[in-house]
Structure formats: structure tokens, C-alpha cells
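Team,

Forwarding the record for the chain on the shared tracking sheet. I've put the sequence and predicted structure together so nobody has to dig through attachments.
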Amino acid sequence: MEKTVSEAIAYRRSVRRYDPNQQLNTTDVQNCIREATLAPTSSNLQLWEFYHITSPDTLKALSKACFGQSAASSALQLVIPIVRKDLWKKRAAANLDFLSGQFDAQETRNAKQEQRTLKYYNKLVPTLYREFFGIFSFARKIVAFFIGLSRPMYREVSRSDLRVIGHKSTALAAENFMISMAAKGMDTCPMEGFDSKRVKKILGLPKSAEISMIIGCGYRDNNGIYGPRFRVPFEEVYRAI
């Protein structure tokens, strides 16, 4: 029986060692990746890809690139969320096609809303994401600064800001994936310890792609969790205003 959201959140732990005798169903993991793609994402651009690794040879190569840590070397499968900020044109065009179809299907059309929405993907998104040797990034910061002197203004407009936004959206999707896996009784471990250059070479990724994390997948071994869960007291992180 599948766990509730609260049960899945409580069940999820970073599992460092997996039981080699319990095989993962590839389709089950794929379905969890599908649920990952339902995560919220900035401007609905979905600037991500998910590499689902089941090949023994590729698993072995990636384990080496992860410094042989047990969460990778004992994983039955790996899932690697990739940030693809370079795909913004393609994803913005996909949003435009979808939204145009939605507007065309409406019996009563709101011209102002339609114009505002289409303008967002036709003009604002290109203004934010278009780059030319960092010049546009610098210009956006200057414009945001001066506009912000007189009224509220969105400030995260530089190339590095947009990179952070891409990683945030991809991390939200990764969490969706891990909670979905936990709900079905499967285990994961997100890893940041890896040689990104070697991983990109193994996966055949373009230079512009960035690895968000590498997620080991399997069923927890008896010694797969290293100890009780520790969290800073809630009172130290909760602020009610």
C-alpha cells in the first residue's frame, strides 16, 4: 500500500547502502521520475532533464566518478537531474504553443490576459535569458538597480542569478522524485560528491548542461542508514511574523 505524503516524508532517509538482493523495477522508477516533472518550476520553463541509469557498465563508471562512495557503488540504479538553462528558447516556445492552443479553444477570450501572457514568453523571458558574453547580464542588473530606486523591482536578473533559479527548480523536481520513491517503499540518496567533468563526459552532456545532483536508488540494506535522524530544533528555524 502506497504511503501518504506525510508518511513518505518521514520514511525518506539518505540511504548509503542498498540491498543487492532486492531488484528495482525500472518502470516504477521511471514513473517516479514522471512525477518529478510535475514539480513547480520558474516560469514553467522546466529547464531540466533526468538521466535514468540502469546499464551496469555506466553504473560502474559513475560510481568511480562519485569517488566510490557506497551510496553510488551499491545503488541498483541512478537518477541524475540535469539543469539545462541553455534550452530556454525551446521550452519558452513550447509554452507559447500550448498557451496559444488554450486561448484558441476558449469560447470567451480575455484579450488583455492573452496579450499579457504571450508577451511574457515572447519578450520578458528572452530579455532575461538572452546572453552575449555577459554584457546583457550586466545591463539587466543596471536597469534593475535604477528601476528599483523608485518602485519594487525583480532583482535576480544576472546570468548567475538565472543559474541559481535553474538549480532551484531542478532541486524541487528531485525532491518530488525522492518523495515519490519513498511513497512506494523505495530508497534514495542525493549526492553532491562527484567529479562533474567526468560525469558529463560519461553521459555525453554538452558543456552548457549542469549536474544538480546524483541520486542513488535501491532498497535499504540493514546498515544502509548510518544513524538516527538529526534536525535542528524547529524553534530555531521557525519564524512567525
